[in-house]
């Protein structure tokens, strides 16, 4: 996969040289290219922002440098990339979206600063590229670079060969499969007893069926405790008899209209 990032702070992306992402780049699984937005300015101050029309606080990123940068990068060969713009007003970034992006051969990120990018830039490129405005959460950052780091890591680890154990992806919280829609339960490693805390005996039993059931029970309990709306979203049709027992122990009930189905 090719990933291009246009930013006024390309040095912000040094973490992409370490850990799994750094190894993926070294192995050629991930081609990340950084671009300085100011390279597409034409004044002595290399200006990328100006005051907003209509007044108000803050500055707005100018359309000219962004358009020239996107044109240059997106036109550098092959089918056009998918343009991703992090913004609090975008659609929520989820594991489902990460899986969608992992199927793309080329992603182009445009992280904004200040009050954002002149809206005409998105209007211009929506007719020429697939443009996604994406939010990583209901909060505001100083700039979109941190959001790009989050998205790139979430997507890159889904690429074949990036993780040492491909099964890690299928066991993730929010991943499709047996645990779809649930948070991952607690995990343990050696020693079996640490500071008086013992690993649950079932995990030492070697009974893989019972272990799988225990893990689902714990995933249900953790999800109910921390993200009850996710359990409600599953609906009773997505639960088996034991699931209902676990939820019943916690006094969780679906609505009467659900239980009638």
UniProtKB/TrEMBL annotation:
Keyword Zinc annotated: no
CDD domains cross-referenced by the UniProt entry: TrmD-like
InterPro entries named in the record: Alpha/beta_knot_MTases, tRNA_m1G_MeTrfase_C_sf, tRNA_m1G_MeTrfase_TrmD, tRNA_m1G_MTases_N, tRNA_MeTrfase_TRMD/TRM10
Root EC class: transferase
Gene3D superfamilies linked to this entry: 3.40.1280.10, tRNA(m1g37)methyltransferase, domain 2 (1.10.1270.20)
EC id: 2.1.1.228
Primary location recorded for the protein, binned into one broad class: cytoplasm
Residue span(s) of domain tRNA methyltransferase TRMD/TRM10-type: 1-232
Binding site for S-adenosyl-L-methionine: 136-141
Catalysed transformations (reactions): guanosine(37) in tRNA + S-adenosyl-L-methionine = N(1)-methylguanosine(37) in tRNA + S-adenosyl-L-homocysteine + H(+)
Keywords: Cytoplasm, Methyltransferase, S-adenosyl-L-methionine, Transferase, tRNA processing
Location within or outside the cell: Cytoplasm
PANTHER family associated with the record: TRNA (GUANINE-N(1)-)-METHYLTRANSFERASE (PTHR46417)
Function: Specifically methylates guanosine-37 in various tRNAs.
Family, as annotated: Belongs to the RNA methyltransferase TrmD family.
Self-association and partners: Homodimer.
Cross-referenced HAMAP family: TrmD
NCBIfam families linked: PRK00026.1, trmD
Name of this protein: tRNA (guanine-N(1)-)-methyltransferase
The species this protein was found in: Sphaerisporangium flaviroseum
